[in-house]
Amino acid sequence: MRFLPVGLAAGSLLAAMALATTASASASPAGKRQTVVTALGYNSTDWRYLQVPPAADEPLFADRSFDDSGWPAGQEGFGTVNGTCRWNNPVSVKTRWAVNTDLLVRHWVHIPRDAQQVRIQGTVDNDASVYLNGHLLQTVKSGNCKAGAIDVVVPSKYLDCCNLLAIRGHDYGLATYLNVAVTYVKTAPAA
């Protein structure tokens, strides 16, 4: 009897997680059901990261073969807890990123082969270079923490089953912030 509430809580948590991974569903003109699936959510864990001076040359960090085993692991959002950005607070910032530095982050993402419209979205203060499997996809100059400044649909030719998302964030001072998510569209026959 004592374990029932815990079991119900766990079941509720699993149900909430299942709902969270399915952002929307609609029928396509061809009679197929399309669902947006979250492959890597905001505030995700197990990011490998390294803070470096702005002029530091790390040309290979975005490559799949780069060895980041000596880097610490952290959770998004990366940033400072004081600043002008609405996310500069202890609730939103899980891993500290010092001002006037660059932040190199890497995360492996599984995307099914039949995934369509793979999209990387997020927020950065100040700038970011976004890579997937070593390919530069977007250079963002967002200034002061513009929500959604990172927004790119990945060309299918750059996708693999196991993908490396790498981002170099750059800060100009005062405050920092970085948090991204990866989604894709899954198509299935309509029920």
From TrEMBL:
<keyword id="KW-0732">Signal</keyword>
<feature type="signal peptide">
    <location>
        <begin position="1"/>
        <end position="27"/>
    </location>
</feature>
<protein>
    <recommendedName>
        <fullName>Secreted protein</fullName>
    </recommendedName>
</protein>
